[in-house]
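Retro notes, item 3 of 5
We never archived the inputs for the S-adenosylmethionine complex last cycle. Fixing that now. Sequence and ligand:
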Amino acid sequence: MTLNRPLIPGRAGALLAELGDRAVCCDLYDEVGAPVYHDLAGQDTHEVRELLTLVRTVPGPVLDLAAGSGRLTMPLLASGRDVTALELSGSMLKLLTARLAEAPEALRNRCTPVQADMSDFALGREFGVIVLGTTSVSLLDAPGRKGLYHSVRAHLAPGGRLLLSTVDLTAGDQAPTETEVEFTADSGRSYRMFEYWTPGAEARTVTVFPAVIGGEQVDVCTTTIRVLSADQLEEELRQSGFAVCSRRLLPDVGARHHSVLIEAEVTA
Ligand SMILES: C[S@@+](CC[C@H](N)C(=O)[O-])C[C@H]1O[C@@H](n2cnc3c(N)ncnc32)[C@H](O)[C@@H]1O
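Structure as it came back at the time:
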């Protein structure tokens, strides 16, 4: 889906302006953006080990919310669990289905991909663990998060756990407003990824360009992500009938990212 020219701040915005009409803006999870996101996620092992460690402590099937192309789904399956992978974007789900088609049959047969909205779903079954990783909770607005907590409650088996990650950005003076990372994915394609956040702002903007600009059309993928602190999420969880069992600081990602993994259970 081509976006109307979005307002992109900082150096990414300047680069977009330089490209003029050659730039075609798209969402990071649509049919153009999904393969780019998949490429970005390919080398990203962030939070996987910590999530698997917690998942192992609770029996039963796993629901992976906002599963994307399976960055967390695949290791969860590899650990021997039955996994339902819920994802809104048909383009992302297609990538996951393609990955599953190449996986061993025994693993593929334990996965159920579902296209649905994590803020309002009804799967008609319960799960031992519900995972919402990669800080994807920040893609939902406040009513969306309320719907998420409600749906999660309805799908957790007795004794089940919700595992939720978020990124606390430091508001320190040293934190740069904009970061830029250039890297080459396993596919061989190279990207320049910009992230813009002003300390205190409610959202950050991530924009991805090809590292080498050539040809007539340049696909520029962008997404805006809310900044939700662990304190805020824990308070929301309590108000929605959850008790927080643990909060773990995860290894840092980049200069100013402090990821936090929250483990919660339904209160009686
Ligand atoms: C940051 S990606 C995470 C994907 C995957 N979990 C990973 O670790 O790579 C966020 C995903 O959430 C999906 N998404 C966004 N809004 C959603 C919603 N309301 N319900 C379900 N999925 C959603 C996007 O399409 C995208 O695939």
